[in-house]
Amino acid sequence: MDTFTDSGTLSGPTVLRPGDAGYEEETPGFQLAFDQRPDLVVPAARPEDVAAAVRYAAGRGLRVGVHATGHGLPGARRGGLLVTTRRLDRLTVDPVARTVRVGAGVRWGAVVAAAAPHGLAPLNGSAPSVGVVGYTPGGGLGLLAREFGWAADHVRSLDVVTADGRLRHVTAETEPDLYWGLLGGGPGLGVVIGLETALVPVRTLTAARSPTTGGWWTRRPCCAPGPSGHGPCRPA
Ligand SMILES: Cc1cc2nc3c(=O)[nH]c(=O)nc-3n(C[C@H](O)[C@H](O)[C@H](O)COP(=O)(O)OP(=O)(O)OC[C@H]3O[C@@H](n4cnc5c(N)ncnc54)[C@H](O)[C@@H]3O)c2cc1C
Asked: How far is the CA of 131 from the centre of ligand 1 (A)?
């Protein structure tokens, strides 16, 4: 185990190399079908750790991969530098504004649990173990999509470290190109440190899975189906 700053000297975030204690525990995620062997792993505990890691990698031409949960596959599967974000786990619900701010390591299950006491729900997908920040920039099509649409369309702001190592607060107004590129473009434009997104007023949800098509059927109890028997819902 070692530490570095962006200039490569000691001190700063922890960095793990193959053979170091902790490397084998930190590297794999949910997907175990592919062996992941990055040259360096940075278990980020603060936004500054991510910025230092990106600057360090940029200065040496290293590929940067990120994972929160490892449900997908990070860029730095072989060689390169892998940033793990699960320690960036701050989560704040604002029940009046109907928003939630999450760090890059937060999973949907934690957001559902924090929002539910306020009669609110996030636009999460089917698995509580999926990460908010890995899911949302890809679009995010969840159980409430027929009523509320894509999760990416509800994001208010993102905090992201871009390839130059700068930490930016990105909204549709302040940095429209980066904002729209991050939302729907999938990962790759930077390392997202956290984001703020909307919650919707949903207290309970009935869901079932079709045994023939495998598709999900969901309905809010406050809604009746449309004339065809399917969505969109109209008030009951
Ligand atoms: C069991 C299961 C159920 C799913 N259900 C749904 C669903 O209902 N609806 C839906 O739309 N999708 C669904 N998905 C797909 C899921 O949304 C994607 O796989 C998502 O990318 C996983 O994000 P993660 O953070 O959990 O995984 P990770 O592997 O940690 O990240 C996934 C991708 O995002 C990148 N990434 C992660 N964190 C950051 C960051 N901080 N900054 C920049 N890039 C980052 C990673 O490099 C990787 O390319 C499901 C996946 C699984 C495995």
From this structure: 6
CATH number of 2-84: 3.30.43.10
Tell me which residue has its CA closest to atom 27 in ligand 1.
71
End-to-end CA distance of the chain: give it in Å, rounded.
60
Digit-by-digit pLDDT tens for the chain (236 residues) are 566 666 555 456 789 999 999 999 998 877 777 778 899 999 999 999 999 999 999 888 999 999 998 887 665 577 899 999 999 999 999 999 999 999 999 999 999 999 999 999 999 998 999 999 999 988 999 989 988 999 999 999 999 999 999 999 999 999 999 999 999 776 679 999 999 999 999 988 777 777 787 776 666 554 444 444 444 444 44
- What are the sequence ranges of the domains in the chain? 2-84, 91-198, 206-235
Nearest ligand 1 atom to alpha carbon 160: 42
* CA pseudo-torsion sign 167, 89, 29, 150: negative
Q: Which residues pair with 24 in a beta bridge?
A: none
Q: How far apart are CA 87 and CA 113, in angstroms?
A: 19
CATH architecture type of domain 91-198? 2-Layer Sandwich (3.30)
Q: What pTM did the predictor assign? A: 0.87
Residues with CB under 6 Å of ligand 1 are 29, 65-72, 74-75, 85, 104, 125-127, 130-131, 133-135, 138, 140-142, 187, 191-192
